[in-house]
Every structure is written in C-alpha cells, then in structure tokens.
Write a structure and sequence with these properties.
Keywords: DNA-binding, Transcription, Transcription regulation
Number of helices: 4
Pfam families: GntR, UTRA
Structural class: alpha+beta
CATH architecture of the largest domain: 3-Layer(aba) Sandwich
Largest sheet: 7 strands, antiparallel
CATH topology of the largest domain: Chorismate lyase
GO molecular function, one term: DNA-binding transcription factor activity
Number of domains: 2
Organism: Nereida ignava
Order of helices and strands: EHHHEEEEEEHEEEE
InterPro entries: Bact_HTH_transcr_reg, Chorismate_lyase_/UTRA_dom_sf, Tscrpt_reg_HTH_GntR, UTRA, WH-like_DNA-bd_sf, WH_DNA-bd_sf
Length: 250
C-alpha cells in the first residue's frame, strides 16, 4: 500500500545567477544556451568525464545538430564557467568541477543514462486557492509534461504564489520557469527543499506520460523560496523511474 507524499527531505540550495543572457520570446531557450545547459548536465552526470577531449568543432556541431557558430557560443559559456579548457594545437578538454551555476541548477531529474536537456509542454494554467499543504493561500496552478532529451519522464503540478507573481498566463511560460520568474517578474529563486517519496498518478495525467492513473510512482514535493525566504513556488512532480532518476550531488 502506498502512503501518499511520504518521503525523505532533501535540502537543495544553489544560487541561480542573474542571467546576462536574455531568453527567447517563446518557451525554448536559445539554441546555444540550451546546448551549454545540456553539456553542463552531461559533465555533472559523468557522461563527459574530466579530461575528456571533445571532438573537433565541426564534427561535434554535426553530432549535436547545430551550426559551428552555435556550438562555439555554447563552448564559450562552458569555458567561462571553468568546465572547458582550450589547448592551442590540441583541442578542447572537459574540466569537471562542482558548484557550477546554471539555469537548471536546481532540476534534479536526469535520464537513467545521466543528464538530458529539460523541456516542458504546458497542459493548463489556472488561478485559484492553493491546496492546504501549500505555504501560501492563493496561486497560479501550472500543469505540464516534463521531458528530458525529448522523452516524457514526468508530470508536474506547480503552484506559483500570487503575492510574488501577480499575473501569469500560459503564454508567459518558458521551459525554464526560474529563469522566467527572474527575467519577467524580477523574482529570483535562491533555494529549494524537496521531499522524495511515492504517490499515485493523478487523474489529469498527460497521455504521453507512461504510468497510468492511480499507478504508484516516484514523487517529489518541492517548496522554492526567493532570496528573502518567501515561498514563491510549491510543486509536485510524479516521475517515471523506468526513464529518469532523482539525483542530488554534493
């Protein structure tokens, strides 16, 4: 028998840097930023190990399906973060280290093989009274499908405090919500607390999410706070453990 929302508490604290790079007007990040985020996650997961020599830029661009110019802009970001060393006449080498600031620094879901570029597909946005276990009384409720490298791995129900963000519609949403909160509303998420356990798939599941309604699956409850400690977001994530894992690196 599954006891709903019972689990261990995991403290996740990471500074989401004030981005000097503007996100695109649509839901997706610009290609070079998305590629840099994907590479950061692959380095963190060990898919690109410390000291690994990257392929020649033209070959790597072709492998990743981007232009050489896009790849070079992504590699510049990695170099600035200390994750890439360019050796003249030799090539580009991975330099793995912890504590790297990134847009998805607080996203703990990864593919079972490690990493995976996060994207999301909105299902609905409504404004209403928040559930009793939320740390605020009124919120914008976002329901969406979470994907990693295009694979549906989770469904998310995210409540955004209306005292922090007064107006929010489906056209405001981006793949990276924390970046959107900061750039559009001036609200920066500084830390989050997760409780990880098991729960049953809700009735509103997206058809692309593998587990069926009422199946027991892995479950994350999160409260995200801004720099002043105010609760900005309360969320629940149901994820498919056959496709993804919750990873918290220290």
């Amino acid at each position: 028998m599954i006891k709903e929302r019972e689990g261990r508490v995991v403290q996740n604290e990471a500074y989401i840097s004030p981005s000097t790079i503007r996100a695109a007007d649509d839901t997706a990040l610009p290609k070079y930023i998305a590629l840099s985020e994907l590479l950061i996650r692959e380095i963190a997961a060990g898919r690109l190990a410390d000291g690994h020599k990257l392929p020649p830029e033209r070959d790597m661009a072709a492998e990743r399906g981007v232009s050489v110019g896009t790849l070079r802009k992504a590699l510049i970001i990695l170099e600035e973060k200390g994750l890439l060393e360019r050796i003249q006449g030799s090539g580009n080498y991975v330099r793995s280290r912890g504590g790297v600031e990134s847009i998805y620094g607080l996203l703990r879901l990864e593919l079972l093989t490690g990493g995976g570029l996060p994207t999301a597909r909105p299902i609905s946005v409504d404004t209403m009274d928040a559930p009793a276990d939320a740390p605020f009384d009124h919120g914008h409720r976002i329901r969406r499908l979470r994907l990693l490298d295009g694979t549906a791995v989770a469904i998310e129900e995210i409540w955004v405090n209306t005292h922090a963000i007064t107006a929010l519609g489906i056209t405001d949403l981006q793949d990276a919500l924390y970046l959107m909160y900061e750039q559009r509303f001036g609200v920066r998420i500084a830390r989050a607390q997760d409780s990880v356990g098991m729960d049953r798939v809700p009735s509103w599941r997206h058809v692309e999410f593998g587990p069926q309604i009422d199946d027991a699956v892995s479950h994350i409850t999160r409260v995200a706070r801004d720099l002043e400690g105010r609760a900005v977001e309360y969320s629940q994530t149901w994820f498919d453990a056959k496709k993804a894992a919750y990873i918290n690196r220290f």
